Amino acid sequence: MGGLTILTERRGQICSGETRKGEIQCERQSLAGAVSQRACVFCGSRVVLYPIADAVHLVHGPAGCAAYTWDIRGSLSSGPELHRSSFSTDLREQDVIHGGEPRLYRALVELIREHRPAAAFVYSTCIVGIIGDDVEAVCRQVAEEQGLPVIAVKSEGFRGTKKDGYAAACDAISTLIGRREVLGDNARTLNVLGEFNLAGESWIIRRYFEEMGLRVQAVMTGDGRVGDIEGAHCARLNVLQCSGSMAPLARQMRERWGIPFIRVSFFGLEDVATSLRSAAGVFADPEVTARTEALIRRESARVEPALDRYKALLTGKRAAIYVGGAFKAISLVKALRRIGIETVVAGSQTGSREEYVELRQACGAQTVLIDDANPLELAKFAVECGADLLVGGVKERPLAYKLGIAFCDHNHERKKPLAGFEGMLNFAKEVHASIASPVWQFLRRPTEPRGTDGD
């Protein structure tokens, strides 16, 4: 691993101990041939919009694109599960030659008549951008005929990266906002942006806000409902959890509706408490503040003893982090530190300059920072820095196991909530279970020498 040559064009995106004084380069297009862990524009739009549970999600393109993103978020719903059906126009060779608009029209009409959704999203794929189908015109026609929002998502995969897909999704959501008024007192109302209800996490967050005396108008988009999103402009505050995916929408709502937003994170005790206090502070209501502090004291007292026990077992271990956004990585560094684990490698697919500055401050002096990594780079630095744990997503799991190190899934596929106070306890349990697994005694680390007995 030590002999791996970093591609010259990527050296500015890696900040190691020797180069920490320089500013890491980020928000760049992936280097051709570098085997980026990023996904395409289409995938980015799907992961944001997919959890809206009472809408039809129709992929206009080959069936493979719909199959690739089926159930991509694993987002839970408290009611309808229409979002879990992956519909496709299944474009074929004749459609490419003659155009796919007739097939799109027929598919939309059939789906709407069959399922009676609250809205329909139509995702453009690469081939649709190449052949030039007028998806927006078809959507307008069907919307007028069927009497519901039919929204074209400009998500042709070749238009950029996953982050560009986030922006396309935000543009699609913004077309819904303001379509209906929410009657009654909205003085203590907020929206939660960038929360996708993985393993029921939005239910935990909603419960916190309700206990604080605040009403959640819409979660965008975990366990989302079209009607709630249509009235999101009546809220007094937007709390922005995943800034990489939903910051464009937060800025649009601030400019159009005058709704302020704050960045929050519900991962790790420190950031959960800070986020709840920040939200309460915006409303400047003594009752809300008192209820918030009572909630934090109670929940902290409930989980702190168990976290102390895990810290005693995990102190001295090292972790590598590679996730979608750098803001999440910052919270993970703090959460790992709370249970005694030092972060030696930290990176993201779509981090911004501001987020990397914060990440640099949160990490130790020798932590390797890396933007838009590829598997060889991740493996190199994880091994060289002596990581005992890799925190990542589905693409990083096989890499961790091949390296013989523990893994914690902090992405789309997890089955237990990792947000909130109870989520921090689940995180500590999972990290300990993986690191302490007896299976590792049977594996040889890549840095260990081979024996002479033929192994």
Instruction: Indicate how many domains the architecture comprises.
Output: 3
Largest sheet: 6 strands, mixed
Mean pLDDT: 92
| Assembly of the depicted chains | single chain
Q: Can you tell me the residue ranges where pLDDT is under 50 for at least 5 consecutive residues?
A: 449-455
Can you put this structure into words, describing what you see?
With 455 residues, the protein is an alpha/beta fold. The chain folds into 3 domains: 150 residues, Nitrogenase molybdenum iron protein domain (Rossmann fold); 134 residues, Rossmann fold (3-Layer(aba) Sandwich); 106 residues, Rossmann fold, CATH 3.40.50.1980. Helices cover 44% and strands 15% of the residues. The strands form 3 sheets. It has a 6-stranded mixed sheet, with helices on both faces. Strands 3-2-4-5 form a 4-stranded parallel sheet, sandwiched between helices. The protein has a 4-stranded parallel sheet with strand order 7-6-8-9, with helices on both faces. Helix 7 packs parallel to helix 10, helix 12 packs parallel to helix 17 and helix 13 packs parallel to helix 14.
In short:
The protein is an alpha/beta fold and about 450 residues long. The protein contains 17 helices and 14 strands. Strands 1-12-11-10-13-14 form a six-stranded mixed β-sheet, with helices on both faces. The chain has a four-stranded parallel β-sheet with strand order 3-2-4-5, with helices on both faces. A four-stranded parallel β-sheet has the order 7-6-8-9, with helices on both faces.
